[in-house]
Specification:
Elements (H helix, E strand, L loop, with lengths): L1 H16 L7 H19 L2 H15 L7 H32 L1 H8 L7
Helix pairs in contact: 1-2, 2-3, 3-4
């Protein structure tokens, strides 16, 4: 419960301090990163946060922009978050397949009639 309360406090503070028209590193990099950490504290689901970061990073990417955050950092963060999300989903899928393997194998075996 402590992480969630901390997440609410940090996210609220970030939302109050955030200026969407800001051009400095604090407004365009540090505060959004703190928002992502606070979101993880709220939902405590890394897959949800990495998916959100990948989508938002992709939306804010602009390869022709003069600012290095838009041109380099956002695409790199988006790619890293997307890869992380893919790894999480793949591991969950593999874990589920392995957990149900024996049951699925038994269902495929021919049934022996009782004599």
């Amino acid at each position: 419960m402590g992480r969630r309360i901390t997440g609410v406090i940090v996210l609220s503070g970030c939302l109050l301090a955030y200026d969407p028209a800001g051009t400095d590193l604090l407004q365009r990099g540090i505060i959004p990163a703190l928002m992502a950490v606070a979101a993880w504290g709220l939902v405590q689901n890394l897959a949800a946060v990495t998916l959100g970061v990948a989508v938002l990073g992709g939306i804010h990417s602009d390869f022709t922009a003069p600012h290095w955050l838009d041109r380099l950092a956002y695409p790199a963060i988006s790619l890293a978050a997307g890869v992380t999300f893919g790894i999480i989903v793949w591991r969950r899928f593999r874990r589920r397949v392995l957990a149900t393997h024996e049951e699925r194998w038994r269902e495929r075996q021919p049934r022996n009639p009782v004599q």
